[in-house]
Amino acid sequence: MHDVSHATHHGPPTTFIRKHIFSTDHKVIGKQYYALALVAAFFGMMLSWIMRIHLGWTNAAIPGTQLLSSTGAPGGVITPEFYLQLMTMHGTIMVFFVLTTAPFAAFGNFFLPIQVGAEDMPFPRFNMMSFWVTFMAFLVLVASFIVGDGPTLGGWTQYAPLSAVGSASGPGQGTGAVLWAASIGLFCIGQLLGALNFISTTLDMRTKGMSLMRLPLSAWAWFITSCIGLTAFAVLLPACILLILDHVAGTSFFIPSGLVINDKLLPHSGGSTLLWQHLFWFFGHPEVYIAIVPAMGVVSHILVTNMRKPMLSHRVLIYCMMGIGFLSYVVYGHHMFVSGMNPFSALVFSFPTLVITIPATIIVLIWLGSLYGSRLRINSASLFALGFISMFISGGVSGFFLAQPSLDILLHATYFVVGHFHMVMGVAAMFGIFAGTYFWFPKMTGRMMNETLGRVHFWMSFVGAYALFMPFHYLGLAANIRRYQAFVDDYLQPLIPVHKFITVAALFTGFAQLIFLYNLIHSRFWGAKATENPWEATSLEWSTDSPPSWNNFNGKHIVVYHDPYQYGVQGSMGDYVMQTSPEQVATPGDEK
Amino acid sequence: MATTVHEPPIDLGRTPRTTSGDGGRNNVTTGGDLKKLDNYSPPPASTAVWVGIAAITMSFFAFTSALVVRKGGAPDWKHLTLPPILYFNTVLLLISSFTLQTARKRIALFMGGTKISNPAFWLHATMGLGLLFVAGQYIAWMQLRAQGLYIATSPNSSFFYVFTTIHALHVLGGLLGLGYVIRRFHKGILRKSTLDAASHYWHFMDVLWLYLLFVLWSKI
Questions:
Q1: Interchain contact, B48 vs A278, CB within 8 Å
Q2: Cα–Cα distances in angstroms (integers) from residue A212 to residues A215, A301, A591, in the given order
Q3: What's the predicted TM-score (pTM) here?
Q4: How many structural domains are present in chain B?
Q5: Domain assignment of residue A517, given as a range
Q6: Do the domain assignments include residue A557?
Q7: Cβ contact, residue pair A560, B155, below 8 Å
């Protein structure tokens, strides 16, 4: 039996600070990550609203924006530079502090140890450090609004040399760019500490009977994601260090010779601008899967529970997620088709980009095939899970086009790409986060969320997101360049009504998120009490109290007897048998 | 008398680990027999140290890639003679690995009941050598500065300072780990897995330094 030595590094917390702030309890840390992601999401969404209003009505004064920057938004009217600063911060906050933090760090921290049957992660102090370093990273990033001349305007990819040459290249390119690099460097350290715990938890903390194939799909997704994150963040961290040195130590890692900015010759020589792109995208493409693979696992876990039958193949789904994780490292060059790379190199990167669609397509087919003929229980969680699949397919299809270098060269700098990644990575992952929230909220808080509001939230978000992001593809095909803060060219003028429509859709979709926020807060305090297993689910998190005690299973030693998804069987409690139940079940799905 | 907690006495032999971890190969058959369980998995510290080593390896591969790319396209690459003290530092670090192995053997004997005076002596010696290594690296930086070679002087010196500084920071991390081991040993709560993890990390610092020295010698 698992020795308590690994599980009870810490006793029950006794003080408020140890219980709620500097806690080593993985569940508290999971909630802290969730709260951070929530704050970041609404902040990032607010920035996108400002950008969208500006794009629809360029000269409009937007009340309150002066608070973000008096020079960037004099009288509430956004300057071109400030638009780029908002865009950079929106992208950075959403990719790092929402899409990485919520589905992986938040849900993973809370549920991975419980789903493997452990009482905590093996290194709780590292886990606590992981959150607080990430939180510091967020503060450092947001601080750039009030330090110097505002945040960096180089985009979330911070391409060199613009990101490395300092304030000569625009507002925010001095202190703001250093703060950006410092923030992301800290974020990398936080995620590396988290990955260390996730991998050790999965490999070493499983309870008696919990073989790897008996792990739920969500646990597998977190494990695979932590392996991806371990290697991806370990590369971004050095890149950030070198970028900071170019700023503060006068080195020339990314700054080429003879660079003249604003009629001023820079004293740097010999740096490689492409070096940054290589280092960044070696992280950047796996980052897409750091956002989406946990959502895949969460959605699979929720669908199985609501379908009341196992997936067509538990095992193949896991192998496909692994395949995606591996291939994510060899496709990164497709982000650099327009960097002037050798056409043969483009072909080399194009091929695995197309190959990676194979495991992704198999996963989608497994979902659809499993859904076919099932009596899906419709609730907020399962609706968002279906919405995830819809978004993943819709956004993924445009990826086939972008994988072709000849097409990507035309579309790369247009809204087509913006539409693609917002749907396949942004909205899909967000839907995964929502699905996970509605599904696990009872376990995390001991309360149920309001189902009616949840469904209203889903339909408004689903319709709103399509109305928002599908027209981006049309704009891209009409050669609407991305990152423009206003559309003054003749050929872009007819597209302004489309932008206005998108802005209305963005505000509508954003309003739906306010409903979600109300539901979340109201249900936390006044929602109906949740039972131990409200969804009649089988995995270990449903074998304990809602919310679980500080040591998860009240000191009981959990023994696992079954695969994670014993649905559609004749069990003593109904059409399911929990993993902890020793009763015999004759089922072909029990993979040994 | 120092004792281990939760784990059997330290044995540096090659016997299979019989730890408390239950991950891995311990399926319970449906309605199954718990006696058939095979408890056999590494303790988390062992896994974690290899995970950490993997991350550090990736980071230094990234730095090396940066060096190769930067050197390939740069007309400003100049040859830099490495400070000779680096070779002395290398010897110190290599000796520290031997002292650490000696320390592990003596602690294992001590745990097995053999009377040994000051069983943690070689752990302290390892820490001392590690500190000397970091001090030696500092002297190397000072020697370069005396020649007018600062981090921004040339791409060669930039990479030299980056490689050696980041490695030295990792060595300092290893020294903290050894300090933690010594503290737990004196408190009588040292686990074998903790000592193993700290040792693996320390030896990895050796290997990493040899690799970096080769890169610095051949490319800079």
A1: no
A2: 5, 16, 11
A3: 0.92
A4: 1
A5: 27-577
A6: yes
A7: no
